[in-house]
């Protein structure tokens, strides 16, 4: 009689599973895309068919699983198993197991989602009369998830879960294979709701912007043309201003004007576009009597000299000061030095960056007769000598 009752208990989960499959197989509305089910728990009632070598009756057992949907195709879960099995010899068996399973779920978004499972764990076998033991085990099986309720907003769901697995136990001994058939409920707690995407309305295409005006027809729109009245046919830069011509490529624009428009290509020229000699003369540079103070007519000449040096910033220059023959030689030497330093300071104030050396020669290098006023006037001078590279 007891064996008949145990067999009936063991077949109960199978009967429940068959009825559930029939109910879930009915047609249902098309499934919608769903959020993740997240964490879930599953109490499962098992029908256990144990290996004949255990010498116990088949009976019902219980599994509790807790897991997480880590991917649309995969679940990982921890399961706890317990079963009590009677033996005709009185050496009853209690089995407790804990393991980790990986479930490969197919067609998860449909009403019936089949899955395969693999698992590893440890199982404790307590005998009433003989020795107890703990061994590793491995599970392999298949199952089915049937959706009873599912929320497409937050992923919460209730499933009817059915599976069958073979458990290979006693790996360190000869090995035994038990078969577990389970049916239970699986409840998923869901995840945060995924808001439906909001599609912004499509704005109408903007009206085409009016074509920019260009009154002087130089190719630069009036809005950015800094020279709006350029003569027709002239070449202009990006700001609409005429690009100055330099016919002989001496870096002095023709409009400066270039006093020497046919300078050889590559030649060094002064600010007027003419070839540079070994000295840059400063004919109108004059000082107050017995002083290093520049007279007003000197400024234009020095400004042109500064422009020449800025055009040739690599030239090394000696600023040489000279006097006439009146007065003592020592005094004239000091005066010529001071006048040369005055010219050097002026050039630097005008942006000259060349190397400028200062030297006073006094009355030692006259270029005219100191016996006449006209000669002495020519001898009182400052020149810029180009120092050879």
From TrEMBL:
Superkingdom in the source lineage: Bacteria
Signal peptide boundaries: 1-25
UniProt cross-references to PROSITE patterns, sorted A to Z: OMPA_2 (PS51123)
This protein's UniProt keywords: Cell outer membrane, Ion transport, Membrane, Porin, Signal, Transmembrane, Transmembrane beta strand, Transport
Domain OmpA-like positions: 274-389
Predominant cellular place of this UniProt entry's protein: membrane
Protein name: OmpA family protein
Organism phylogeny: Bacteria, Pseudomonadati, Pseudomonadota, Gammaproteobacteria, Steroidobacterales
Localization annotation: Cell outer membrane
Matches recorded under SUPFAM superfamilies: OmpA-like (SSF103088), OMPA-like (SSF56925), TSP type-3 repeat (SSF103647)
